[in-house]
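Quick note —
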Amino acid sequence: MRIREGHLVSDSSDSCEPGESVDPTPGTSRRIRATLLGYLALTKPRVVELLLVTTIPAMLLAHRGSVDPILILNTLFGGLLAAAGANTLNCVADADIDKMMKRTERRPLARSTVPRSHALVFGLALSVASFFWLWWTTNLLSAHLAGATIAFYVLVYTLLLKRRTSQNVVWGGAAGCMPVMIGWSAVTGTIQWPALVMFLIIFFWTPPHTWALAMRYKDDYKAAGVPMLPAVATEQHVTKQILIYTWLTVAATLALALATGWLYAAVAMVAGTWFLVMAHQLYSGVRKGEPVKPLRLFLQSNNYLSVVFVALAVDSALALPTLFTV
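Predicted structure written out below.
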């Protein structure tokens, strides 16, 4: 037996004589495995990595040098549930356009690996679970922030902005900034200025990160009717916007140095210079009409954000003296 389009079909190797039996276990196991992997894929595990990269440093900075490990684990788990729920509901809403784009055509709902109604229930269950988990293990503010993040990502970004404006990822990216707010509030029960600066770092970082990828797949977005900026604007305009937001990102990382020690400040300056050089090279290459590789900026932007936030985590865990008193 083998699986084809979610159903078991027979081939010549599975035939048997009358009276003989065929063990259905191998085929059943493959089907169960495919279904489980489908549900896992709905949560977009690679996207969830941002949660880990940004939440822990935010919590460590909120109480430099001493944060209860159990609180960190509980916050991460609650945030994981929230991100998984939001991503799943995003897949449900985008099932139609995912089928039209090469980059997303292998997603579970595009391939009908998981029924859309089941995915909807799965996403809602994860979202509700995240709210009550964070309320139970951290505080009500963190739970409300998680709930607001899910609602904004699904209702505002996915259903309202994504298919209507080229600025979709600018405002929709706010959802990806919320893990730092949730992490900070889980420790302090409040929202203070360093949490807002970390929010801005990710807010400004999201457009160059996303647009660099969209430059590579702009034909996909055109085919799906999604007005992502690279699909509706010239490459020179797109790379200029990427450069502007890269400068804003680096400026925000340096502003955060007001609340950190020398280690973070040094890393933020060096990494920011590196990030700016890449953005300038992309913009300059497009202006000169030279072949460019926007996907390189997309990939390296992940490394940039990771380096900055890891430095923040180490700086905060060591409780290095802050450079300024604010």
